[in-house]
Every structure is written in structure tokens, then in C-alpha cells.
Structure prediction request, 341 residues.
Amino acid sequence: MRLLVLGGTEFAGRAVVEAALGRGWEVTVFHRGRHEAPPGVRSLLGDRTAPDGLTALAGDPGEWDVVVDTWSAAPCAVRDAARLLRGRARRYVYVSSCSVYAWAPPAGYGEDAPLVEGASDDADETDYPRDKRGGELAVLDAFGEDRSVLVRAGLLLGPYENIGRLPWWLGRMARGGPVLAPGPRELPLQYVDVRDLAEWILLAAERELSGPYNLMSPQGHTTMGELLDTCARVTGGGAELRWTEPEVILEAGIAPWTELPVWVPPGSDLHDALHGADVSRALAAGLSCRPVEETVAGTWRWLQDVGGAAPQRPDRPRPGLDPEVEAKVLAAAGGVRNTTP
Prediction:
């Protein structure tokens, strides 16, 4: 198979590239040159946000079995690339997001749930959900429904993460001491390891799938307790998890998802949207999700390989809780029992 990845040097794009190289595919990456491309690929340089930014891609004679695009800003960049490539590629896979569903999707929502409004011709960024939906529309306009795959990913974790959610928890556990652990321990989580996402994308290309897919693990694939226990065990930092009721955390003004990454309070619209999607279509199409232990251990090994500090996307806020706020809440909730096994 011949693969073109638009990006391919960070997080999801890089995982796709490495998975394809592992299968012996011919891989071309089109990127800005800000990060070194993985060894074994052919590189084309260009900036999709600049005038004539697709010149290198337009002048290249290559043709591909599949294009993978992870763009998450102004949809016009997806539109321009898709129009350029529609006669040179058999299939276009766009890594979208479950954020494209109209708020608030109920628990158990499938691919037929109502969507946000989006426009593929927007010259400027709007907001993340509408930009992703605009990217979907751009792909559908250029490649049609039969040659498009819309990967509506949920929470992405794993090696190369440049958002900082799992790396923050790992770093916090490595520092050791009492750790504010947001309860309840049995809170179900739904996410996808970026390596499993990549393998499924390649499988979809090989099987010539089309249409939208919610792409994340089954509901309750793991729990908040299993995730944090594993982080503490893998890092070996002597962390003491102090499980704290959601009401205490919220009353302290701590923001779910951002200050305490991954966690959102049970019973909330946010939890249903982020951890309650129906993924039966993707599972029927071959999605396989590795256990949480492999995701955490693989991310920790990668962090050690890069010196312990994860790269951070400049267009995303850095997640995590201020140590002083954590200490204050822990002191106020001093009677909370540590229930770490």
C-alpha cells in the first residue's frame, strides 16, 4: 500500500506512519519541517496555512492508495488538500473528533447523532467542533461518501502525546507524595490508544471502508482507579493516591478535564459525551484496544526516551493542577481515606 500522511511527525500522524512502516508500506509525509520525519519515509515540505503552501505536493508525481489527514484548524486547509488529491488517491481518511456531535450527546450516542454546523470553505478558524466538522465536509465534497473515512476519535492517549494529559499524570506520580485522585475509583473511562487508532486506520484502508466511525475503546474499557493505580505503579514514585469525592473537587473550583486531565464528574453531560459513545460499528470493523497497562507503560517508556518532558502543542493549553491548589484541597479533605490497593 502507498500512504500519504499530511503531517506525520507528531502524535496521531506519527503513530500512523510507524504502523504503516511496520507493515512494509511505502510512506510519504507532507509536513512543515518543524519536527524530524520518522526514518524510512519520503518527505515533502510545505505549510498548508501559507499561500502556495501545497506547491511541493502539487508538483510531486506521486499517487497513493490512501491519504491520512489529522488537521484540526481552519477547514479550508482540508478542502484545498482534498481537492488537490482527489484524482491521485483512492481513499481519504480524516481524523475527526467526537466533538462534532451537537451538544450534549446522550450516553450511548452513535454515528447518526445530530452534528454541529460546519462549513468546508471557512477561511478562518472558528471553534474546534465546527472546524472538525468543516474538515469532514471538505473530504466528503472532494472524495464522496464511498471514498471517505471519517474517524471520530475520542480521548487519545499513548506515546508521542503532545496534549499533555497522560504525561501530566505520569509526571505527577513520579514526584510521589500524596496525590489528589478524583473519584469515584470505579468511574468508567473511554479512550483510544493512539497506536490502536493507527492500526485501525490502516485496516480501514485495506478493507476499503467508508463513512463515519466513533473511534475509541468500548465504554468502561478501564476506570479512573485502574488508570491512576497503573500510573503510580509504573512510575515507581511512591505516590499515595488520596481519593476525593467529586463534590469536594468541584467546590474547590478545580476544573474537570483540564486541571485534572481525563477526569470528568460522573453523571454530567461532559462524562456522557467523552466516555459514553457507542463504538459498536468500529468494533465490528476490526477495532482492537490494548489494556490500560500497555498504554500507560508505553507512554512512560517514551517519556523516559525524550528526557521526561513531553512536547506541548502551542495551540493547546497545558493541562494539570497547581501543586499549591492540590495541597490545599488535600489538607481540607484530610479525613479522606486512601483506598489505593
